[in-house]
Write a structure and sequence with these properties.
Elements: E1 2-11, H1 15-26, E2 32-34, E3 48-49, E4 59-60, H2 61-74, E5 78-80, E6 84-88, E7 94-98, E8 103-112, E9 116-118, E10 134-135, H3 138-141, E11 149-153, H4 157-167, E12 172-176, H5 186-194, E13 198-201, E14 204-211, E15 215-222, E16 230-235, E17 238-241, E18 245-247, E19 278-280, H6 292-312
Parallel strand pairs: 1-2, 1-8, 2-5, 8-19, 10-17, 11-12, 11-17, 12-13
Antiparallel strand pairs: 3-4, 6-7, 7-8, 9-18, 14-15, 15-16
The chain binds NADPH dihydro-nicotinamide-adenine-dinucleotide phosphate (NDP).
Length: 314
């Protein structure tokens, strides 16, 4: 077993993880950051980021994450590729092992910043059509649907963002919204309303998907459980999920306190978790705000909390 020792291990490479890395490396803690399967996290699957302060003209998600990464490396963060497959937080130093089965990291303090992943509806045919029309990332897969009709499920900011992006490529975009209103910000709602080729289907749920090899359409039900209930068929080649996220905490079950939705519970208004010396930052501990800027902010807070912890517990 190859054992790497560090004073501060950061698990996760989104805005929270990289910001924690920038701060802890500048504090001379020589952090090791494990970057997982999707370096840059969810921002690498978004288009333009227009609400991160300091970029008046906007910036692409992947470019922003490249810059975060370069900044962390500039101050000496040791970035390692790999997925954490098990953790032992029962005593200090803490231990984690990576998916290569050969690397173990020993750390005096840990910052968990593993983020969250897109949710699926759980329809029987969803899995069958994954990569054949079903996707949770318009930026990644939208290109395949140029000039074709697609659907986006959800009524939040993500759904609006995905629908607006797809509207620039697809012939038509249906938004499938289960309530009679969009939860998204007024600005996003307005942009959706102004798009010529987006049709919002309110009070609508998806009951099935069909196609031969590739997705060809979706069966919907409108006004379910009311006298106006009716079925509706739409022909779509792409079906994009934008219905929220699940925190990436499977590996921490039993090791850290999680809430009912699986988010890491932090305490005392800080980034401290149920285990002294383990801290959490970003979406993995934030079911509410889930913004790049809030994730970056909490990465900074976790780094400062680690510094203070290591001063008291060298
Ligand atoms: P949200 O939780 O805000 O929205 C999820 C949407 O999916 C809701 O419309 C919800 O419906 C719907 N939904 C959930 N489960 C189902 C289901 N089983 N079937 C059908 N519909 C379902 O998630 P988002 O990912 O959109 O946003 C998360 C956070 O990130 C928010 O705070 C948002 O503001 C922010 N964000 C900001 C952006 C920006 O500012 N540029 C871009 C993207 C996200 P219902 O309303 O009925 O619950």
């Amino acid at each position: 077993m190859n054992t790497i020792s560090t004073r501060c291990l950061i698990i996760g490479a989104g805005p929270a993880g990289y910001t924690a890395a920038i701060y802890t490396s500048r504090a001379n803690l020589k952090p090791v950051l494990v970057e997982g399967l999707q370096p840059g996290g969810q921002l690498t699957t978004t288009t333009e980021i227009e609400n991160f302060p300091g970029y008046p003209a906007g910036i692409s998600g992947p470019k922003m994450m490249e810059d975060f990464r370069a900044q962390a490396q500039r101050f000496g963060t040791d970035i390692i590729s790999g997925v954490v497959t098990s953790v032992d937080f029962s005593k200090r130093p803490f231990h984690v092992t990576l998916d290569d089965g050969a690397t173990e990291i020993e750390a005096a303090a840990v910052i968990v910043a593993t983020g969250a992943s897109a949710k699926y509806l759980g329809l029987p045919d969803e899995d069958r059509f994954k990569g054949m029309g079903v996707s949770a990332c318009a930026t990644c897969d939208g290109f395949f649907f140029r000039g074709r009709p697609v659907a986006v499920v959800g009524g939040g900011d993500t759904a609006c963002e995905e629908a607006l992006y797809l509207a620039t490529l697809a012939s038509k975009v249906y938004m499938i919204v289960r309530k009679d209103y969009l939860r998204a910000s007024k600005y996003m709602q307005q942009r959706v309303a102004e798009a010529q080729n987006i049709e919002v289907l309110f009070n609508t749920q998806t009951v099935g998907l069909h196609g031969t090899d590739l997705l060809e359409g979706a069966r919907l039900v409108q006004f379910k459980g009311t006298p106006e209930e009716k079925e509706l068929e739409i022909n779509v080649d792409g079906f994009f999920l934008a219905i929220g996220h699940t925190p990436n905490t499977d590996v921490f079950k039993g090791a850290l306190e999680l809430d009912a939705q699986g988010y890491i519970v932090t305490r005392d208004g800080k980034t401290a978790t149920s285990i002294e010396g383990v801290f959490a930052a970003g979406d993995v501990a934030d079911p509410v705000y889930q913004q790049a800027v809030t994730a970056a902010g909490s990465g900074c807070r976790a780094a400062i909390d680690v510094e203070q912890f290591l001063l008291m517990n060298p």
